[in-house]
Amino acid sequence: MINNQLNYSLIYSIIKEFREKGHYLASIDPLHLPHSKDIESKTFLLQNYENRFKENKTVFKTLGLLYNKKEECSVNEAITFLKKTYCGTVGVEFMHIDDIGEREWLASKWEQINCSDYLLPVHTKEKIAQMLLECQWFDNFVATKYPTVKRYACEGAESMIIFFDELFTHSCISHNVTDVIIGMPHRGRLNLLACLLKFPPNIMFRKMQGLSEFDLIKAPRIVGDVLSHLYKSIDLNLAEKKNIHVSLLPNPSHLEAINPVVCGKARGKAMTKNLYPYKQSNSNDKLPILPIQVHGDASFSGQGIVMECLEMSNVPHYSVGGSIHLVVNNQIGYTTPGYYNGRSSHYCSDVMKMIDAPCIHVNGDHPEDVLKVTRLAVDYRQKFGKDILIDLVCFRQWGHNELDDPTFTNPLMYKAIHSRERTVAEKYANEIFSQVEIDSIKQKFWTNLNQEFKKSSESKPSNENLKGVWSHIIHPSNEHITVWDTGYSSEQLIAIGRKSVEIPSGFNLHKTLNKSLVNDRLKRLSEQNQIDWATAEIFAFGSLLCEGHNVRISGQDVGRGTFNQRHAMIVDQESGEINIPLNDMFENQSAFLEVANSILSEEAVVGFEYGMSIDSPNNLIIWEAQFGDFFNGAQIMFDTFISAGELKWLLQSGLVILLPHGYDGAGPEHSSCRIERFLQMCDSSVKNVDSDMINWSVTHPSTPSQYFHLLRRQIVRNYRKPLIVASPKLLLRHPQCISNLSEFEEGTHFKPVIDDRLTAKTDAIQKVVFCSGKHYYALNAYRTEQNITDVAIVRIEELCPFPVKDISAVISKYANAKKIIWSQEEHENMGAWSFVNDRFKSHFGCELNYVGRAPLGTPAVGIGSLHKKEHQLVIAQTLEN
């Protein structure tokens, strides 16, 4: 009988407590190790609800309070159901989410799944059993053939393979997902490649034998990467004649660094498919691209880039409609004794709560539960377009790697591991198959691996990376630096410039911009000989858009520009509406400029932009640092991805990095972009004539037209290289830093070296000064003031690849010069000095004299008077001695 006097607030409080705290009672640890859980919550839940009401048979109407598919039930039945649902081998956290609609959806979805036993079809169970066995046998095979290889096996986390298989299948068939992009660390990577992504085992075995995974004849510069960084891109044919494209990205050993790259590639693919139009930052009704981020428990808690990526996940221009996160929770860091030494939070996943993301903890010993929560995660992401995390609680069978002995620091954990009688795969498979069936499956699988092993030393790998949208891209193999026609019609450039300051009717433009932007630009366009840096940039952006190439510029406050010079986007002063004039240049414009003002992050944002750049060669992707030295926060991205990606993985990137650089008395932090670091990372040869076969270009342009040509060159060339630009600060408005419209016209190009424009005869030149960037203008001004006529000032605009041929021509031209100088603003242990000095010695056999600041441990002084004194001394010593 229904008790109409029943206190429904009490019923709701019971339900709420189990939904909120039930995960504390869940049996999610396959090792059953002692954990310091929330004892107070456990005690409260057990004493005040389960024990107190376990005999209460009062019936109540569920009224949507409980989603057990019953219109009514008793209190004790409800508690039994809630305990089974929230305190079993899965712990679900979602009550921290602010949105009540999301909470109710998760509660209803999870409770309906658990209102009866989760019965899978026989064929699905057989598939699970076979995948688990093959995952285990792959590890066994490799351990037998290569006992000293660190393979970072899946053993102890075999259920990971069930997550991936179900994710591919369910997302494609139930939600029409077309692309899955995966970033993951070492653990289980080889198993995923071999068992699901059809990576040829013979190529993997070649790698284990110390042979190359690439065809070195066709790619002689490739150096490859370690076994645990192998990658694959493949179309998987699933049921119902549906395909899904899966990309497992290559990764460095810097844990979690791959995360923003995954999201950036997803965003880049969306840009190419025009899923995120420029007037709309994201669209959750179309989520065919699914980013998957796989983490380790300790790195997920400890690496700051995790927080940066999460904070970026719902920001306009960075949203990818949510990622599905899988934490492969080994319950241990490297060899850290106990999780309590690895984090301060209760769960490793607690950082997810800052973006209201659900967290699901599942016992790795229960593969069917893994399948169940994977489906829930996919459904949630596709429904709400948000991040969700699965915490797969498992263990590592062999420690950090197969050659490590973890018992030094974790004796209790490994006592529990070594006492396990059967593996997850064996336990589950024995419930599904007979021993005869298991032996038959094993024989077939093992035979196939043996065949692959036999042909591994003779197999020839292929360099299958330039396909699809990359099919028109080549690997450069020329012996000299190539010159590319990057000019554009002057008539069209003027039209682009005018469109860039065409303000919509009724738009309330900032009063300062009417004069400093609109009137100034129109005047420059009419005079045609006063093109400044910002206008040249607009020329580059607009011309590429006209040619059908998307352009994206990202960074902190890039819309207006750090130095208030760009204003590629304008903001209505009354409504706050944002307008990007270049996106309305003509009817049916297909390409767009995306101006992405970023969060105050460097590492995650740079990684994101790199990910965008490797997705398509037809989009120009730019990251601008607020000041040049801000790249420091993203050093891992430069070291492991941008500078080395092509050499390790044959992945080309046309990413442009703008680093405002120049000594202007601002002090140590924001004077230098540390150009010496980028030059040190160049693989440009000192002895041989340099060519386009370098890992990236490092430039220090000194004119607007040079900058224009550099940006256009990134797209015009038939190959892609990252471009490092030591970009200006003071030159943005310097009266002498201007270009004539003729320098942008068709038939013009970037000049690696700009010779002096002398009126005197070249045989009268006694000294040749080589320099780069802004420093030229200070030298030239002093030379003019002092009426010095026997000194030529030559600008090296591109330092890598080093323009040997152009410099040689200059040196020959000034054959009578008695002294050749390298002059720079930076200190002697910084800047380009050491880079150019070695090359001048090697190629020209001349003694290059250094003039610049003395060595120092900081980039610049912080005392204004001292800076001025240093500056005057460098200029005078360069030109007078």
Determine Rg (CA atoms, Å).
31 Å
Give the number of DSSP strands.
24
Silhouette: globular
Mean pLDDT: 91
Strand content: 5-15%
Determine the structural class based on helices, strands and strand pairing: alpha/beta
How many strands, which pairing sense, and closed or not: the largest β-sheet? 8 strands, mixed
Stretches where pLDDT is under 50 for at least 5 consecutive residues are 278-285
Q: CATH H level of the largest domain: which superfamily?
A: Thiamin diphosphate (ThDP)-binding fold, Pyr/PP domains
**Assembly form of the protein:** single chain
What's the number of structural domains?
A: 4
Secondary structure tally, helices: 27
Looking across the biggest beta sheet, what order are the strands in?
A: 3-9-10-8-7-4-6-5
CATH fold group of the largest domain? Rossmann fold
Q: Briefly, what is this?
A:
With 881 residues, this protein is an alpha/beta fold. The chain is built from 27 helices and 24 strands.
Describe this structure in words.
- By secondary structure, the protein is of the alpha/beta class.
- It folds into four domains: 8-113, no CATH class; 122-323 and 367-388 and 421-455, Thiamin diphosphate (ThDP)-binding fold, Pyr/PP domains (Rossmann fold); 490-661 and 700-744, Rossmann fold, CATH 3.40.50; 754-880, Multifunctional 2-oxoglutarate metabolism enzyme, C-terminal domain (Rossmann fold), CATH 3.40.50.
- Helix content is 37%, strand content 13%.
- It has 27 helices and 24 strands.
- It has an eight-stranded mixed sheet. A seven-stranded mixed sheet has the order 14-11-15-16-18-17-22, with helices on both faces.
- β12 (570-571) and β13 (578-579) form a beta hairpin.
- InterPro entries: 2oxoglutarate_DH_E1, DH_E1, KGD_C_sf, ODO-1/KGD_C, THDP-binding, Transketolase-like_Pyr-bd.
- Belongs to the alpha-ketoglutarate dehydrogenase family.
